[in-house]
Specification:
single chain; alpha/beta; 6-stranded mixed beta sheet; 18 helices; 40% helix; 11% strand
């Protein structure tokens, strides 16, 4: 294995320091450990790296044996986007559920408990919270990941989340700057564009980021979105006007600036990851997130070589790269100083509350039609009307109410349905059983609404559970809006259906 950076090669070590790469497997590969010794300062974890809390703790210990102050980052929003519980569903509701409850103390408690669990596993940087104002109800990628559509609500809960997370010694990374809520395109697939004037952005989208910065968010993540009112030429991740002039200058963020995943098509499909990474650092980004899709040693080498070559050609000022690397090291120092498992450190916020996620999920459920509803005593047929999952959520995380109803009403049966014939197929599969139809963003999927039309016409006693953004009018013999599809949201809904 060749060496990328020797101890005296500060330029190459700085280039390695600004990378936040991923890898495959549940133990660290040799190449990753070698690069940590050569200057790599961060590692990003994804669902593929996690089998259990115990395994994750062993993995992070393996990384720290090579570099004590390594930043171990994870995309753990809780709710629909979970890596820690990718195979079971999250023990915590997501942002929309917390926004629906609108108790900032509860949001702080949830974030603190999640932070405690991350810290216990050795994770010290969370690529969360999402501070996006979900102003476009048809947004295909934010939705329940947002606290809501009201600017002030999103701002106060973003600040509470940051405070709670960081009380556990885990740095928060508020995203997706300058706001991904008014998009109709998923930046995993193409470049979204937000065509509103600067005044709207200042009064709507930037307010939660100001609140996060005021709350001390140690990091902010950029969005791969084009916002012509701020920069007509470059997406936010590559824009000096947006990252340096606005985020650093006007908003006063002095912490780390992290890019969203550089292999997302909005960047990779337009600039390429090497060129994109150079432009991002030149624009003011300090850390390059890559590894969700590209998770090998060659990716690290390519990006490191691109940054070094850009400095040597004069395209990227060496002092800008050095400044970025120093900001990474500064965050590493903060996490080391705030480690809750360090000798003499206080456990963040006391003992912790393992039930806070379920309590929050129960409070987030909104029930319509309860007046004439009698809880079920016989096992129903649960029909999941399943849309295509967006990449941020992934399709490996289970969702719905069937598992919990099976536990409460043994004999419950379930099936997954999609497409124009879904309604008829559900009726055929359910037979005489009571139908529980579980939907996700009914208002965004005409086929889903049509399936409910057919179900309710034939079986007006059908129970409807909306586990996405409740944008459609409530209908059904009982309608439950859970404001998210986390495991605890499914349990809260099942409890209401079974009267537990």
């Amino acid at each position: 294995m060749t060496t990328i950076a020797r101890a005296t090669d500060t330029l190459t070590r700085d280039a390695l320091t600004v990378l936040q790469p991923g890898f495959t497997g549940t133990t660290a590969p040799d190449w990753l450990l070698r690069r940590l010794g050569e200057g790599l300062a961060s590692v990003g974890l994804f669902g593929r790296n996690i089998a259990s809390a115990e395994q994750l703790a062993a993995l992070t210990a393996q990384l720290r044996a090579e570099r004590e102050d390594v930043l171990v980052a994870i995309d753990e929003e809780s709710g629909d986007v979970t890596r820690l519980e990718v195979r079971t569903g999250s023990s915590f509701p997501g942002n929309l559920a917390l926004g629906a409850v609108d108790d900032v103390g509860l949001t702080r408690e949830v974030a603190a408990e999640l932070g405690r669990r991350l810290a216990a596993c050795g994770v010290n940087l969370n690529w969360a919270p999402s501070a996006d104002v979900n102003s476009n109800p048809d947004n295909p990628v934010i939705g329940v990941r947002s606290f809501g559509a009201a600017t002030d609500l999103v701002a106060r809960h973003t600040a509470a989340y940051v405070t709670g997370m960081q009380s556990a010694g885990v740095a928060a990374c508020t995203k997706h700057f300058p706001g991904h809520g008014d998009t109709a395109v998923d930046s995993h697939h193409a470049m979204p564009r937000i065509d509103v004037d600067a005044a709207v952005l200042a009064e709507r989208d930037l307010v939660p980021f100001r609140a996060a910065i005021a709350a001390g968010s140690r990091a902010v993540m950029s969005a791969h979105i084009l916002v012509p009112a701020l920069d007509p030429d470059r997406p936010a991740t590559l824009s000096r006007r947006i990252l340096t002039d606005l985020l650093r200058g006007e908003l006063g963020h002095d912490g780390l600036i992290v890019t969203d995943g550089m292999e997302m098509r909005a960047i990779a499909g337009t600039y390429g990851i090497e060129r994109g990474s150079v432009l991002a650092v030149a624009a003011g980004a300090d850390a390059i997130c890559v590894g969700g899709g590209l998770s090998d040693e060659d990716t690290v080498r390519r990006l490191c070589d691109a940054l070094v070559a850009a400095v040597r050609s004069g395209e990227l000022p060496e002092e800008r790269l050095a400044d970025a690397a120093e900001r990474v090291r500064a965050l590493a120092r903060w996490t080391t100083a705030h480690r809750t498992d360090a000798p003499g450190a206080e456990a963040a916020g006391g003992q912790g509350d393992g039930d806070v996620g379920l309590r929050a999920a129960r409070r987030a459920v909104r029930v319509t039609g309860a007046e004439g509803f009698t809880p079920l005593t016989d096992p129903p047929y649960v029909a999941a009307l399943t849309p295509v999952a967006n990449i941020a959520v992934g399709d490996e995380t289970p969702w719905g109410v069937a598992a919990e109803l099976c536990r409460m009403l043994p004999g419950t049966e379930t099936g997954s349905f999609t497409g124009p014939d879904a309604g008829k197929e559900v009726l055929a599969a359910a037979g005489p059983r009571r139908v529980v139809a579980v939907v996700r963003d009914e208002h965004r999927h005409p086929w889903m609404a049509a399936a409910l039309d057919i179900l309710l016409a034939a079986r007006p006693d059908t129970i409807v559970v909306e586990m996405g953004v409740p944008g459609a009018e409530p209908r059904g013999a009982l309608h439950l809006a859970t404001h998210g599809a986390a495991r605890v949201c499914g349990r809260a809904a099942a409890e209401a259906i079974a009267g537990v």
